[in-house]
Amino acid sequence: MTGPVAPDQGVPSSSGEPNGRAPVSGASRAVSGARGTDLPHGNAAPGSTDDVPLLNIANILTILRIALVPVFLAALFVGDGHDTTWRLTATAVFAVAAITDRIDGQVARKYGLVTDFGKMADPIADKALIGAALVGLSMLGDLSWWVTVIIGVREIGITAVRFAVIRHGVIPAGRGGKVKTLVQTFAIGVYLCPLPSAVDPVAMTLMALAVLLTVYTGIDYVVQAVRLRRGVSAS
Hints:
Elements: H1 26-36, H2 57-76, H3 84-111, H4 116-139, H5 145-165, H6 175-192, H7 200-234
């Protein structure tokens, strides 16, 4: 488990400088920059956002992902929701949206295209896509509602926890969270795609693994948040 980063350990402020804005050495600045990449969402990177244009490729990709959510749902619910052609279309739209989730954060960090809009819109886009897919599959009877509820409550709850403690410090995005998102995406993709019934055990196994990772990483984040609050209170 990755421990929380306390606010006085070199986490950059909104201007890109460490808290207190005291002069720092090159090594300290490097550490500060590395920690800045672990902000609680993908479309985030160290450095000032003042001179970054709002309309940049990273934000455009994030907006595209949000715009694809209603397109995905429309394709998913055509007819009875089980038309092969439209299910393939919905799967393709979901895949494109999921790919933009990987690209926008990488582009923002690599080219310094971070904006406050991107920091807020990126996690919203992620949750909207995953949530829409889970709810849609449950409404069509393809996925049990308890799976959708568990994942939905976890995603909304942890997002709220992260923003609630962000003034005390940053909870880094751990490897478990990234694996969880990857497994969720693959599991949903398998459920969406009209595959032979012989693949059903694979789909159920992937989704069960996604639920386990969702619960485990959720507990991990809560533990980190509690430790962070206690550490700040004790200092």
